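Thread: Newbie trying to understand structure tokens

Hi all, I'm a second-year student working on a class project, and my supervisor (Dr. K.) asked me to get a predicted structure for one chain before our next meeting. I've only ever worked with sequences, so writing a 3D structure as a token string is new to me. If someone could post the tokens and maybe explain what I'm looking at, I'd be very grateful. Here's the chain:
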Amino acid sequence: METNNDFIHNPYNNTINCNDSLHHITYPDTESLTNVLNSKIPCNETLSPENIRFLQNKGYHNHETGYSILPDGTSYIAFHLPLPDITPKMFDWFFSWHPLDSKRYKLWHPDEHISVAVDDEDRKKLLNKRLSYKERLWDINVLYIEKLMTI
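---
Reply by user tm_fold:
Sure, no problem. This is what the structure looks like when written as tokens:
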């Protein structure tokens, strides 16, 4: 497991200019995180993996913030986090770039993001320069390991 010392020596630290929009993201405050914990979403109102593309629909969903424990024991968390000045192209680039190396993922939130992984087939797809960044993200599986904050 990587430590914060590994983050300090992360070769990707210089990849993103400190003036870029990514560095102006405001992380959720304790009140916002408490709202998630106090907003239980009924299991039948969670978004199933088969319907994940509904997130691309315009407008807000019934439950933008909250949590649920699904019948199989899976934790479900929804959290609305505005990303001002982030374009769809920037978003697609970042999500096709960071799964290739856990150090890249840790740039986003070094204390909470532990690791990220993709299998060999999905890695090839993420590296395929003939595809747009958006196309690279279609139908891939990414394993994220995160540490949840305690309040």
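A couple of things are worth pointing out once you decode it. The CA atoms of residues 98 and 104 lie 5 Å apart. The helical segments are 4-8, 30-37, 88-97, 102-108, 120-127, 133-137. Feel free to ask follow-ups in this thread.
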